[in-house]
Amino acid sequence: MRTLLLFTTLLLLAGCCNLPEKKAKPVEPVAVSWSDLPGWSREDHLGAFRAFLAECHALKGNWVDVCRNASQLSDPDAKSARRFFEDNFRPYRLLNADGSGEGLITGYYEPVIQASLHPSALYRYPVYGTPKDLVTVDLAGVYPQLAHLNLKGRVVGNRLIPYYSRSVIEGPTSPLAGNEILWTDDPMALFLLQVQGSGKARLDDGNTVRLAYDNQNGLPYQSIGRILVKEGELDLQDATMQGILDWGRRNPDKVRALLDRNPSYVFFRMLADSGEGPAGSLGVPLSAGRSLAVDLRAIPLGAPVYLSTELPDSRPFERLMLAQDTGGAIRGKVRADIYWGAGSAAGKIAGITRQRGRMWILLPAR
Question: 192 near 262, Cβ under 8 Å?
Answer without folding.
Answer: no
